[in-house]
Design goal:
- The chain is mainly beta.
- Helix content is about 10%, strand content about 35%.
- The strands form two sheets. The protein has a five-stranded antiparallel β-sheet with strand order 6-5-4-7-8.
- The longest helix is centred in the first third of the chain and has 8 residues, at about 20-25.
- It is globular, with a radius of gyration of 16 Å.
Length: about 140
């Protein structure tokens, strides 16, 4: 299969609730939603605060730091567009600000991933208008 026939990964489509997140990613900033009534931060973005039920929110720039809360290695079956990447990791990162985000860990073998390891956000530009948040080992994090 030639490169121009190879399927491309699905591109996120921003909506009213998550546009601030995706705009931040495009600018290589990790932004998370914050309730302006009670100050709770949340991810994924949603229309109402799960703590106080307010519909008022803004976007704050997150540190981009966190730790691996959980992970899995995907071998298949998977969607055809991702099959060439298999095996690949899927990580749940708990951000230092509290919320969790699901992503991938780059530049790290499956054998090196462990629960609790410190990670930093990086961005993968997948189109002119879209960047995806990924994570890599934090500077100084020991590698097994």
């Amino acid at each position: 299969m030639s490169d121009d026939q190879r399927p491309t990964i699905p591109i996120p489509v921003p909506n009213f609730d998550n546009a601030g997140f995706w705009e931040g990613c495009r600018q290589h900033e990790l932004r998370i939603q914050r309730c302006t009534a009670c100050g709770a931060v949340r991810h994924p973005p949603r229309p109402m605060c799960p703590h106080c039920n307010s519909v008022d929110s803004d976007w704050m720039r997150a540190s981009g730091r966190g730790s691996v809360f959980s992970f899995t290695i995907v071998h298949g079956p998977t969607l055809p567009v991702f099959q060439a990447r298999a095996p690949y990791n899927v990580v749940v990162v708990q951000l230092d600000e509290g919320p969790y985000i699901v992503s991938n860990l780059v530049d790290c073998s499956a054998e090196q991933i462990r629960i609790g390891m410190a990670v930093d956000v990086v961005f993968e530009d997948v189109s002119e208008d879209t960047s995806l948040p990924k994570f890599r080992l934090a500077a100084g994090e020991p590698v097994r």
